[in-house]
Model the fold of this input.
Amino acid sequence: MSLFEYAPAPESRSIVDIKSSYGLFIDGKFVDPKDGSTFKTINPASEETLAEVSEAGNGDVDAAVAAARKAYTKVWGPMPGSERAKYLFRIARIIAERSRELAVLESLDNGKPIKESRDADIPLVSSFFFYYAGWADKLPYAGMGPDPKPLGVAGQVIPWNFPLLMLAWKIAPALACGNTVVLKPAETTPLSALLFAEICQQAELPPGVVNIVTGAGQTGSALVSHPDVDKIAFTGSTAVGRDIAKSVAGTKKKVTLELGGKAANIVFDDAAIDQAVEGIVNGIFFNQGHVCCAGSRLLVAESIQDEVLDKLKRRMSTLRLGDPLDKNTDIGAINSSQQLAKIKELAAVGQAEGARQWSVSCDIPDNGFWFAPTIFTDVSQSHRIAREEIFGPVLSVLSFRTPEEAIAKANNTPYGLSAGVWTEKGSRMLWAATALKAGVVWANTFNKFDPTSPFGGLKESGYGREGGRHGLEAYLNV
Done:
């Protein structure tokens, strides 16, 4: 029991104006869907309806792609990179100016704590546009050939865990390279993408350069399979990624896929344990574990396992679960009832298979979708909770005796998106980073992102890179 309680510190909802209904953003303006269908987006922390959102049908996707093609051919493609850069810089500045508004909207629609959307997501969104604005007139010097050309129309499908950040990862490099975009946000988190559409209008971006079509899987499928789309960029589950790869096989479409993960966070016996515990907490409980590169498998040296677990449980007991708009909240709401059901199912499987569950004792709100931060010990590599992506605040703990065993266990997964290594020895760090089969390896830290650094996976975690100079290649004809 703590000696004191934090007073409520809610962020004001009045900073953002949520409309009762939203149309599709096609050719620079909001329009009603041709088939008239709509769906509701809700606040996962309270289950209240936030807005009614249009669902794009095949005809709407056709119109969006046609608008993007026209803008690419007549305006954006021929435009000098120095001029494209001005629009990107303008968008980046507007995002920074409206950051508080965007952060509140993201937390309302997604359920993540306001301090994460305010201090992590939105600053990164702005910095991605700033970064790629700088590349727009320097493409001949990016190492992709002396005169790299854009691909044309990019169809982009993004997930619900980082709605606006994933939008920035996709749209910023595409526009910098001279492509136009049709983007479909996740059906549970469309609102920040629709506010971004308003930002495009405010920045006076030429009509058709960015188009936003909201909807569910059928809308995404229509976009991916559209014959006039030159490039597909998808972030989401490995299962859907496989379907996309099959559907574009044999076509001329260029594809990048950023898919699932089951990252190992390795703590060697010489690690700074207090620092490692903070990294473990950040690795799995950041954004409620709704992170494809989350450190969901903790591999800890057997000689320090008890000490690490004791300190980890003590640290977890200080985490505050509750209202995402409260600035003191560490753990927000699970994004949807479907995702909560999946987390509960896999947690039950973990117990049934013999793993030992320990969850933080905390008050669960009556409304909304919630899951207390949880760790499983006595986990074996054959357990489903050690193999399958839970995508929630659930950590599986395994031990190892030798460094070689740690690497073997870490690599024993069909995924290969990320990994973390905690050690005081630089030589061990470099050895482990080389031996780990992961696209990103963090050293004595976790979940650190930067627009200058490429991100992407190996094996069933996808292919292609986003971010950095490498992220330009996905949108250039090289």
